[in-house]
């Protein structure tokens, strides 16, 4: 049974090219574009670049894993492609990454998802391409930070995870462009919670006029937390930041409706009208 001691990393250009050919022969045309991109990245990265791609072989050289190591902050082992028969080989790849300081692992869910789940991986949202992801959660707690998103790429995977969970159709290219336009115009702001640099929670605040206050109000929506990070106080961080954002924008009321509202009871929403919860935000002067 393969273990970490039998793992071989292909480090020179010829080895890496043979490695990609093996992947190409196994994965077929569906992976061709991804493999072309990986090949370009391998040619451009500096020798010994710890944060780049790593080509790993196990067994007789026919069990393969193409992985990427996260930086000092993120500490993620991303398994980009994997062709493996043995659970021991899967464990060896994870152990290899963790020995190099990684604290959690992630890969796109494939036909062998159940085999990875035996190692502790859990279904956990989507990636930026809309592929369902598996995550081996970090063992310990780590500080989380909350702030306004800097751009759509920061939270796009969370948006796709949100729509996959709701069962709706995710925004297409036109919808994505409209979302960017609304952000640029100040009509909507997105807030993310990050754990070691990784976005794990999301919400949006849209601006509208309220006849109740005859003033602008904020609507809290798009609340999504990756399943592996639920129950850790992320929702409270999102609501608190949304209220802070509204106050700074002169918005005097924050509301939330529907199923989302039921989850947010006790987080500062003191008014209830039907399915709507609201949080008054008295105008504050500095």
UniProtKB/TrEMBL annotation:
This is GNAT family N-acetyltransferase. It comes from the Bacteria. Transmembrane segments: none annotated. Pfam families: Acetyltransf_1 (PF00583). Residues 146-286 form the N-acetyltransferase domain. CDD domains: NAT_SF (cd04301). GO terms for molecular function: acyltransferase activity, transferring groups other than amino-acyl groups.
